[in-house]
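Anyone up for a design puzzle?
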């Protein structure tokens, strides 16, 4: 350690400023490229999950799903309630199809829920009331009850930062079964073994644009680390 020559304070500050500037550029490029990648990679529909679906699983599924059946979920954009056929896969991801026939034909699901980091709450109204009170306290305003009325037998699959799913079953008995199943999925799913091509492509393009902006000819066409 005694052979290391300390940097001058001015030089060290220049390096820190350059690093901070590059990080800001990368963050800006990442946000821009990510939005473009999402809209060019997925068709917009009522079931569209932007910007919540950051991870997608391949359509080739294992056999013998853990559980399947009809549930009704609320859309993310139009907030309409639509009946979907849910299939819990052996890797604890939950696909939902337009109907059972679409699933039996092997069609692409309308969407996939990756429950990593989620919680399943059986009393959704209490959960939302707690969130509204917390937000009101942060903003320093009075809490007001929500006028929204939910269907019977409803439960939630909620996340602190990502999209939350509002789902209702046909009966209290079915609700209890599905709540326990979703809780099992939330506890057992492995969130980091699912490759997300959108984030991978976005990262590589943002790095390339950042390095290009700083005129480093060695990295103009960065394509990510080489696989070992």
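Challenge accepted. My sequence:
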């Amino acid at each position: 350690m005694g052979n290391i020559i300390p940097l001058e304070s001015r030089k060290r500050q220049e390096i820190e400023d350059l690093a901070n500037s590059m990080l800001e550029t990368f963050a800006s490029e990442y946000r821009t490229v990510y939005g473009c990648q999402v809209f060019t990679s997925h068709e917009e529909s009522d079931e569209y999950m932007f910007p919540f679906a950051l991870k997608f699983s391949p359509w080739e599924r294992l056999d013998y799903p853990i559980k399947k059946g009809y549930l009704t979920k609320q859309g993310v954009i139009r907030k309409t309630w639509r009946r979907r056929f849910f299939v819990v896969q052996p890797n604890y991801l939950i696909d939902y199809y337009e109907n059972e026939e679409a699933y039996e034909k092997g069609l692409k699901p309308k969407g996939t829920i990756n429950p990593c980091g989620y919680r399943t709450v059986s009393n959704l109204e209490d959960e939302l009331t707690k969130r509204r009170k917390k937000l009101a306290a942060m903003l320093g305003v009075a809490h007001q009850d929500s006028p929204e009325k939910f269907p019977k037998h409803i439960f939630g699959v909620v996340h602190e930062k990502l999209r939350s799913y509002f789902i209702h079953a046909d009966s209290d008995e079915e609700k209890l079964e599905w709540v326990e199943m979703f809780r099992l999925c939330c506890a057992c799913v492995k969130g980091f073994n699912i490759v997300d091509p959108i984030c991978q492509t976005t990262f590589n393009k943002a790095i390339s644009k950042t390095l290009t902006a700083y005129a480093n000819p060695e990295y103009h066409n960065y394509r990510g680390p080489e696989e070992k």
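A detail worth pointing out: The first helix runs from residue 9 to 41.
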